[in-house]
């Protein structure tokens, strides 16, 4: 019985193994049949079925339609060039908003030879450069000299007739003559300077009327302080009437009032400090 039972158990085990093997074969055939059915499903599209992994699964963006859809309208003020919208050009005289803004150029200082000063009779002006007179009608001057304009000759638009003033005393006119307009610029005299000039002109007019009383009028080019009793002191610009000249460089002179009407003092004066005055 024991032997019979052992044999029976072996047969049962063999049957179980056979059944298990048949089950594996059946499952394999079932999977192969399913796979073949999927391939047939995509065969009509000319491609095989592909199962993507979650990591590689990406959804492609839909293609942009090329027909049937209108392009967005151009910006206000833009124009179409070759089917594309272009921004309008900036107005004439205005830079593009994207353009680099540069500082305006500094105005250059006018060079000598180009008149920019609109001179009028009665104005003061100042020399911008040195000028050497070419004839006796013209005035020689240096940069910084101040003038008072007395005439604008209609026939000579580039020239002015002016008084050359003493820089320290506008009452004193050193000389008068022609001045090239391109060598001067506007000068804004103070009220005191303008008053001195007017006073000096009034005195000059009175002096001209009293010229018959002067034998040899001179104007002092500098101040002089007497060091001896017979000498006479005077200020720069003072009016002196020379009575007699001496070979030693001295002269006898009368210091006159500004209008030449009266004698203020008399004595000896150094001739080198006196300039002849033409009235």
Q: Any descriptors?
A:
12 strands, five-stranded antiparallel beta sheet, 2 helices, rod-shaped, 279 residues, 24% strand
Shape descriptor reads: rod-shaped
Structural class based on helices, strands and sheet pairing: alpha+beta
Poorly predicted runs are 39-87, 90-111
Within the largest sheet, what's the order of strands? Answer: 6-5-4-3-7
- How is the biggest beta sheet arranged? 5 strands, antiparallel
> What percent strand?
15-25%
Instruction: Give the termini separation.
Output: 177 Å
Oligomeric nature of the chains: single chain
Helical content, roughly? 10-25%
Series of secondary-structure elements, N-terminal to C-terminal: HEEEEEEEHEEEEE
Roughly how many Å is the radius of gyration? Answer: 58 Å
The gist of it:
This protein is 22% helix and 24% strand. It is built from 2 helices and 12 strands; from the N terminus they run H-E-E-E-E-E-E-E-H-E-E-E-E-E.
